[in-house]
Amino acid sequence: MKAIIVLFLLLSLSFGGAKVQEFVLENGVKLIVKETTGKGIVSGVVFIKSGTYGEEKKGTTALMSNLLIRGTKTYDAYSISAVFEDYGGGISASASDDYVEIDFSTKVEGLKEGLKVIKSILEEPLFREEDLERERNNILQALRSRKEKGYELAMDTLRRLTYRSSNYEYSPLGKEEDLKEIRREDLIKRWQEILKGQNVVVSLVGDFKTEEVLKLLKETFSQVPAGNYRVEPVDVPMKENLLEVVKRPGSQATVLCAFDAPAFRGKEYFAFKVLDAVLGDGMTSKLFKELREKKGYAYAVYSMYPTRLSSPRLIAYIGTSPEKRQSALKDLVEVVKNTDITPEDIELAKNKIVGDFLLAHQTRARQAWYLGFFEIMGFGWKMDEEYPERIKKVSFDDVIKVREKYLKKEHCVVVEP
Amino acid sequence: MTALALAGELKTYRLPNGAKLVINKREDTQAVALQVWFRVGSIYEDYTQKGMAHFLEHMLFNGSEKYPYGQIDYIVESLGGNINAGTSKEFTFYHITIAKPYWKTALEVLYQLTQKPLLLEEMVEKEKPIVIEELRRGKDSPTTVLWEEFEKTAYKVSPYRDPIIGYEETISKFTRQALLDFYRNFYQPKNMYIVIVGDVEPEEVYKEVLQTFGREEGRPVPQVQIMPEPQQLESRSKTIKDKRIEKAYWLIGWWVPPIGSKEYYALVVLDQLLGSGRTSLFYRELREKGLVYSVSTGDFARPRDNIFYIYATLDPQKLQEVKERTFELIKSLKENLSEEEVQKAKQRIINSTAFALEKVDSDAYYIGYSLTVVGTLDYYKFFDNNIRSVRKEDVLRVLNYLIDKPYNEVIMLPER
Predict the structure, then answer these.
(1) Is the CATH code 3.30.830.10 the one for domain B236-414?
(2) What pLDDT, on a 0 to 100 scale, did the predictor assign at position B9?
(3) Is residue B27 very low, low, confident or very high in pLDDT (cuts 50, 70, 90)?
(4) Which terminal CB of chain A, N or C, has fewer other CB atoms within 10 Å?
């Protein structure tokens, strides 16, 4: 009972919470604007629904994103960054599985200038050959360097194992053979393909009055071409148990296992978020208590349930000494699938999720990110407000049901010396 | 340490037992950060104690008088808060970030955690394999190996040369008694700084702190002599090879003024000019010219034997070229640095404070660091002003620490 009272109290709080407004431009671009009060700073994110979906050459989108902030017809790379860094903020662009994002921060007084730069990035990026060559080299190196760390090597191996034949099969950085073949025309084509009004969500959070920035925002984004680039990644179901062992010199073994999970649309998503927290989030979680505290297998052990447009998975991790790897793997799967879960565990996990969610909203950059993320993934930005409530409504039975329904098979990777 | 600024209303108290309490009342947030800092880290350990400060940090989570093992995590997480701790070479701190209504519970938890731990024998044994796994996890990462090797190369006498986590040989021999002795010496009011940031009433907090931490007896803190590093006469260079890596890593550092010293603020400006952000000199001239895959600069923010470093990843073939170009760029700054660039760098540092302090826990961290490591709250309070007063000639003066002076470097190359 105590835990439930706590949750109600938590729900009544918000960190930097304030008025949020939505505007849809004629071309389909959605603007989400939130006013805060503070020292005159602002953060924003431009999301473009796309990611690696539909890439002909794996890695095109990441390379393209990388070049977005490296020169436009009006601004060179230095000016693009300086406009934001002069005000103590910054700008970056990146691609992940389901979207491209351009993140920026500045002071309110620098917003006008900052948005001019954003407009120029959207409308007139150069994608210069020399930048392309240099950044291609850098990404090729980053790809090869993923073998340097046990975790990254394990994650890339797990991707190939569990997302075979979907666009998630390779990390957004791409595939070496493909990367070498990417030409300037590919980047231009990709940019034209994905930059469609209905794929663009812009979230802006800062210490301004909405009416003061709205005109600027409309000016910035009204020239984005109207239309829609359909992103419909195929779902790859898990058919059988799989295990792959990869050799890498080192002092630890890395174990990663993927389990089936529900899609994000629907009630099951929230129940599964709670299940994930029960199993692998924090010091009270099952994996932490059983595998670290009782068995002493590891320093780090956890699970996660990343939100993706398709092929949802629960992923569990443990890093352990090579001699313990087999028992650690066996016990990891056992804990995930069969360890006892009580109604008290569920209440605790719910509080944990809600608390973490609220604390994660302390910066304007994160507030903007969450609003845009929920919108771009199809939840709608209002999920940012509703999320704690939705978690709160999850019952013990809901969690047990999703556990029984989904946690049946596993795809595991062991990276060992 | 980067930028910080005075945000909110700062109150400082000295408890009768010698503990210090700093409260930053901020009304712009519903989150409260509570942190307890102790001036003890791995440089305070003797040879047999290597890793003890860090091990003790783990042990404090294994049960206290009021809360049995596991209870503390349960309480904090069920209130939607975060609890954790960290050990460095100079300090150890315990922190909770939590929603405003629960700050009192969080304070009680931190009190029990740090002042009433049980340190049971069986728990010491339970914790050993976990900490050894943490150590091996570090060794599994080539970059951890690189940074440890760098400090071992730079520091020949100073205890900064040893890793925070210690060694398997020392950790496996820790006993309850040894931990208790170490604990009693350092985890007491005269060596303690309590920092609270959030929308709280300072007087109410003070009363609450008196009821908890205020009850402990303050004893003299043993003086630990931290051996200073003798002056380095020749540069040292070490090359290591690693089968796991695909590119070269280069880490080079020079001796520079300690944090909190008058010259330090000019060093912060120099760091901004050389390696902070995409507008910095090295990013433009090394990264964007395709000479390196990545480059960054920084300093260890140490109150003694401080080091300014450049860290880059690159193609092994380009190592010599990059090194020469880096030295050239540093020297060219001496000739080419303009007044305008200095002003811009200062402005960037000062402007970034508003972003750095958005999170209450970051704000509390800067206060705690200022008190515990720098040794004065003035560092936090007057940081912006001190940056503002840096002149071009000050930057040029600290630049001299990097020009034609002995350095330390570690190069890590792929082993084929």
Answers:
(1) yes
(2) 73
(3) confident
(4) N
**Alpha-carbon gap, residue A78 to A98, rounded angstroms:** 29
Q: Are B137 and A137 an interchain contact pair (Cβ–Cβ within 8 Å)?
A: no
> Would an 8 Å CB–CB cutoff place A358 in contact with chain B?
yes
Selecting from B77, B98, B279 the residue whose C-beta is nearest the C-beta of A284 gives B77
**Cβ pairs A/B, distance under 8 A:** 186
Domain range list for chain B:
9-215, 236-414
CA distance A41 to A127: 30
Sign of the CA dihedral with B335 first, then B339, B340, and B344 last: positive
Which of A67, A299, A325, A356 should we substitute to test contact with B (largest number of B Cβ atoms within 10 Å)?
A: A299
Using the Cβ of A153 and the Cβ atoms of chain B, whether some distance falls under 8 Å is answered with: no
Intrachain domains B9-215 and B236-414 with the same fold? yes
Q: Who among A249, A354, A362 is closest to B358 (CB)?
A: A362
Chain A contact present for B61, CB below 8 A:
yes
Domains present along chain A, CATH in parentheses? 16-221 (3.30.830.10), 242-416 (3.30.830.10)
Fold (CATH) for B9-215: Cytochrome Bc1 Complex; Chain A, domain 1 (3.30.830)
Kindly determine whether residue A41 and residue B74, on different chains, have CB atoms separated by under 8 Å: no
Please state the φ and ψ torsions of residue A180, each to the nearest 5 degrees: -65, -25
- Burial grade of A14 (CB within 10 A; 0-12, 13-18, 19 or more): middle
Token output for B158: 């100073």
Per-residue pLDDT of chain A in tens (417 residues, 90 and over written 9): 344 445 555 555 554 456 899 999 999 999 999 999 999 999 999 999 999 999 999 999 999 999 999 999 999 999 999 999 999 999 999 999 999 999 999 999 999 999 999 999 999 999 999 999 999 999 999 999 999 999 999 999 999 999 999 999 999 999 999 999 999 999 999 999 999 999 999 999 999 999 999 999 999 999 999 999 999 998 999 999 999 999 999 999 999 999 999 998 889 999 999 999 999 999 999 999 999 999 999 999 999 999 999 999 999 999 999 999 999 999 999 999 999 999 999 999 999 999 999 999 999 999 999 999 999 999 999 999 999 999 999 999 999 999 999 999 999 999 999
Residue of B nearest to A104 (CA): B355
Instruction: Quote the tokens at residue B337.
Output: 């640095």
Q: Which of A224, A387, A248, A402 is nearest to A319 (CA)?
A: A248
Contacts of B255 (CB under 8 A, 6+ apart): B229, B232, B305, B306, B307, B401, B405, B406
Put simply, whether A285 touches B (Cβ < 8 Å) is no
| C-alpha dist (Å) from residue A196 to A174, A193, A408 | 23, 7, 40
Q: Give the model's pLDDT for residue B416.
A: 82
Minimum CA–CA partner of B357 in chain A: A363
Bridge partners of residue B312, in order along the sequence: B250, B295
Sort A188 into a burial class: Cβ within 10 Å, 0-12 / 13-18 / 19+: middle
Closest CB to A10: pick one of B99, B315, B352: B99
pLDDT for A10 equals: 53
